[in-house]
Specification:
heterodimer, A: alpha/beta, Rossmann fold, 2 domains, 8 strands, 43% helix, globular, B: mainly alpha, Fumarate Reductase Iron-sulfur Protein, Chain B, domain 2, 0% strand, elongated
Amino acid sequence: MEQDDKVLFMSDMAAQGKEPEILFWVGCAGSYDTRAQKITKALVKILNHAEVSFAILGKEENCTGDPARRAGNEFVFQMLALQNIETFKMYNVKRIVTFCPHCFNTLKNEYPELGSTVEVVHHTQFIKELIESGRLQVASAPGEVTYHDSCYLGRINDIYDIPRDLITAMGKTIEEMPRSRSRGLCCGAGGAQMFKEDEPGDKRINIERIEEALETGAETILVNCPFCTTMIEDGLKAKEKQESVMVYDLSEMIVQNNGWN
Amino acid sequence: MLQVVIFLIILIVVTYVAAMRYKRIYRNIKLGKDEDLSGDEAQRWKNTLLVAFGQKKMFKRIVPAIFHFFIYVAFLFTQIELIEIIIDGVTGRHRVFASSLGMVYTVLISTIEILSFLALIATFIFLARRNALKIPRFHFDDMGWWPKLDANLILLGELALVIGIFTMNGADMALQQIDPTHYPDTGNLALSSLISPLLFEGLGKDMLVLLERAGWWLHVLTVFAFILYLPISKHLHIFLAFPNVYFARLRSRGAIMNMPEITKEVSSMLGLTEDTTDMSAELPEFGAKDIDDLSWKTIMDAYSCTECGRCTSVCPAHITGKKLSPRKILMDIRDRTEEVAAHLDTKDDKLFPTRQPSEEYSMKHLDDGKSLFDYITREEIHACTTCNACVEACPIMIDPLTPILQLRRYEILTEAAGPKDWTPMFTNLENSSSPWQMPQERDAWVES
């Protein structure tokens, strides 16, 4: 494929009187964080290879408000949310795909009460859909990985099997951590913790988690959340293991397996 | 006859005091804000059957689940025997169901005996887990002397109940041989028929009558003591677990309780609706500072909490040595509720400065200079990652996260305080719609 990094904007499509199949919700991390931008680009490649008609909002996208709401600032949350919902209405958005479980949760579970009717899926769900409908082929490359359940995809939205199915489809075997699925341990970033210093304690939460991940012996840690990615990589750096152990979002692993880098 | 009189007096006093104490719990729960938790009865009954009656969530930890199940089933079945005990006590008859039920009676009481024996084993194991093995979650920092004593008192009470039953039944079986007219045939009771020859045969009739009565009174007085003790104990869960599960919130865990009053204001600010805000109105308080700002369900959560510590043992903040303990949040809410309740009961006018003589003593007039923040520190509520591990862990569907977020709302929206790092985050969200302040545009990555 010539241009697998092609990205269209909702505003441009609307100007041509077109509506894409899905809105790709990039999120703040995916837009600004240099590490998470790689996940954004991986997902763009997957969408293009599967010939999905998609667009982004670009400058018209606001934070969903998840950190504001969880920090207790309902005003800021609702300001952002109501503006986003207006944007969805303006572009007649019907379906959103996002790789950030925090965005996913807020858009899916919190926006309807404020007037949104958009269907929201996490990229792991969407990718599985693409595979099942034959639009996407995933190359198999054997290997051993461990998988970190993010709280907002796992415990909060009960999505445990879909990401694991994708990992198995890539030919990998999963060395589960003792605390997995509904018992998965948080990476420490949720609830707006990402944006503040920790309270005094014995250790950082991501260190507790990375120790558990390293004990599995797997040299690849797969994640489904840009904030988990940051926290787990920081933990690896603290353990000086960033050279020997790799952290990838599931979409990055697919891109790598399929040789689309 | 004397026994009947004594029993009736005790029964009337216990019923009266218990009625007052449980009415007080009901009033205390109602100190919380209204929250509509009706609807979807099918799902609610399903939860009640599976999670409350079926103990589904207990079975995530199999060892305590099995032993807890013994005590729980023994508790449920013993209620049948309790009906007979009360009828006997009031009428002065002896084992009123024995002759009419016949074989069924033997099976029923034998079942209760086997369950009581299993409960006895469980009680010893639970005493050992708390006091000898010192399972960590029973000894975290949030467990003071009272919660630890409370737990042991309950277990000792359970021992008394079981000892009462076996003394009563064992002595009875021996008496059936000596005096069949006064002691109707119960058939061979599963365990008493084994115990009786070892402990009670060969004793004189007077001694056996004394032992049988002692066992009967020990059992029934322990039951009464439990009924009166529960309202001040964590053991209240044996009743409240059921309504607490029934009324558990059914909305997605991912959806934090909405604040429609803010939607109204933000909509008009954004020009989405006609401005109807009354600017002269006093600024409302948002979030929760005291228990009357919390939902009644959160107060019921606090009264239902058994202080098992499953929530705290999986809390990432607690695991990594931070002060937050979800269990302590619930215990604090109950303690503060009890403090407020005590003020409402003593009716000290000094504590109700704004109350007019014609008005009732209510929380809106109470000013004792205290709030939930005297129990729960800022450091605790700031440490929560909203990971929902505590919510998932609770066997009776208590939600510790909602009050934590309501306290945060009070801090941020009403006090304009909170962690200093969050101030720039809010500013960035308002000005550039992202938690970070970034020099480049949101879509700059497309070209990079």
